[in-house]
Amino acid sequence: MPGRRGEARLLDAAGHLILRWPPQGGAPPAAIAYPADPLAAGAALVEASDDAAAGQEKAALARAVKARRAALERRAEAVRGDLGRLGSVARLQKTGQLLLAQGARVPRGAAKALLDDWETGGKIEVALDPARPAKAQAEAFFTKARRYQRGEAVMRARLAETERALSAIAALEADVAAAEARPESLDPLAQRARALGVSRAEPAGAGEPGTSGARALGAGRPAPRRPFHAYRSAAGAAILVGRGAEDNDALTTKHARPHDLWLHAKGVTGSHVVVPLAKGASCPADVLVDAATLAAHFSDARGEAVCEVSYVQRRYVRKPRGAAPGAVLFDREKVIAVRIEEGRLSRLLATKEEG
Question: pTM (2 decimals)?
Answer without folding.
Answer: 0.45
